[in-house]
Amino acid sequence: MARRYDSRTTIFSPEGRLYQIEYAMEAISHAGTVLGVLAKDGVVLAAEKRVTGKLLDLSIAKEGGGYGGSGEKMFLLNSNVIGGVAGITSDANSLVNYARTVAQQHLLQYNDDIPVELLAQRLCDMKQGYTQFGGLRPFGVSLLYAGYDPHYHFQLYHSDPSGNYSGWKATCIGANNGTAQSLLKQEYKDDLGVEEAIGLVLRVMSKTMDSTTLGSEKLEFAVLTYDEAAKAPKAKIYKPAEIDALLRAEGLAKKDEDTEMK
Length: 262
Hints:
The protein is α+β, with helices and mostly antiparallel strands and 262 residues long. The protein has helices at residues 19-29, 59-63, 89-110, 116-129, 177-187, 194-208, 240-249, 257-261, and strands at 34-39, 42-48, 74-78, 81-87, 141-149, 153-159, 165-167, 170-173, 219-227, 232-237. 42% of the residues are buried.
């Protein structure tokens, strides 16, 4: 029965379902995990990289101008918002460019950083349009928005291909998200600080990632805090060496092969 109704996003099935949106969400459930945790003084994001290899050139991520990241999972959407993506990366690039344009238009018009929820709303308006008009397919990507604004301070939002968005204290998208959600429910506390949130995120990622070892070649990491001196939010996307240092500090760094042989 489904085959009669799944060729177009604009046709409801007799059960009231839009199959193409469900298929897009299924694609996301097979993508690399992205996990976000809201702390009282910041927001922490971590993501599993799937595109790895010894011949992949990561020199820009290692030596780039303070940005970090490989351009696969973590993106700076604005000075006050970091985005983590799970799904089809090419779709994500399109949405990230749109989000950056919206944020800059708001800054030009109001001389102020865009509120986090408004940015999520604008992206969701676009995503919802792709579920309603013929000849289009939904974006095969979900996003986590880690942001700060003076109205509601630190916030964490999630949006999916249907155009829905919601606010979270801690959440996970991508592969193994059910396991991660269960672990977060057990360990999350409302009064978490950023340092504790970093430890929680790394522990959960170590238990939910498909790979047996946790290292900078398979992990991206970002933290949004507030700089009291500059009176502005401070977004930091970690470079590989900094991620390895974090893992060592938490005792989760992969062991040296020689040590394992002994």
